Amino acid sequence: REIGTRKSLGASARAIRTQFLVEVIIIGQLGGFVGIALGLGLGNILASYFETPFIIPWGWIGIGMTLCIITSLASGYYPARKASLLDPIVALGRA
């Protein structure tokens, strides 16, 4: 319904596609942050258990966040494109 409402109010296909892709990136980044936080916490627990120093791998964290963005965009582009091409009458009628 949201797509149909926005299209009937004059939103372009590009605006709808951009909205979907931004939402996908935000969700992917939130998942990345949660995964990194859990990984750092578990790494710290394991390091203290084995009595070794815990070193935060900043480079790997950056690579992980970059991969989250790339994966999010790759998995979200097709649905975003399909949603942006949807006829507003069809989108409003599905509700």
Unreliable parts: none
Mean pLDDT: 92
Query: Termini separation (Å)?
Result: 6 Å
Could you give the count of β-strands? 0
The helix fraction, in percent, is over 70%
SSE order, as H and E?
A: HHHH
Q: Please give the count of helices.
A: 4
Q: Tell me, what's the shape?
A: rod-shaped
- The domain tally reads 1
Please identify the structural class as seen in this structure. Answer: mainly alpha
User: Biggest sheet, in brief?
Assistant: none
Note the beta-strand portion: under 5%
- Rg of Cα set: 20 Å
What are the key terms here?
95 residues; mainly alpha; 4 helices; 0% strand; rod-shaped
Your description of this structure?
By secondary structure, the protein is mainly α. The protein has one domain. The chain is built from 4 helices and no strands. Helix 2 (13-49) runs antiparallel to helix 3. The longest helix has 37 residues, at 13-49. It is rod-shaped and about 65 Å long. The protein starts with a helix and ends with a helix. The mean pLDDT is 92.
Outline of the structure:
The chain is mostly helical and 95 residues long. The protein has helices at 2-8, 13-49, 58-84, 88-93.
Strand and helix layout:
Elements: H1 2-8, H2 13-49, H3 58-84, H4 88-93
